[in-house]
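chain below, 169 aa
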Amino acid sequence: MCELREESEEKARAKEHVIRHDEHKFDIISNYPPDKVPLERWQRWCKIWNTDKWLERSKVGRKNRQNDISRHTGGSMGFDERRIRLKKQKGGLVSYKFVFIDTHATKETKKRLREGEISIDDLDQLEFVTPRSKESFTLFHKELEKECGPNNNQNLDRDEFAVWERLHI
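prediction:
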């Protein structure tokens, strides 16, 4: 969406509107939709973006991204929704550890996991997008081992949730 807004701003600037890079003039850009977005849809989106609620959420999100507070690679989809979708894709149970890695590991780590070079239990081989992500995953992994043992997969779903809940909720 950011790229679409930038494209719209560039179109507006080309028509001699003055728009600073650090602000969004939704009332102006609403008349200059990006090439692939119908005018009516673009105007609806601009109307939504021009509300106090959205502007505040945008401001908070920008601050969080700058501070690495919520840096992850999973987009805006919630953890539970991602877990449900992965479960459907894989055709079976998906562990909390797997979902955490799917949303916090680097692309290179995910590739190495898919290719079987490393496993999700190779803590020293896993690279995360922030140190905080790695700390959180390592703590979760160690607590899960303490509670369930290193190779206990019998009640993994229930056990993982109990540990996850204790550490993160």
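The CA atoms of residues 2 and 8 lie 10 Å apart. The radius of gyration is 21 Å.
thats it, cya
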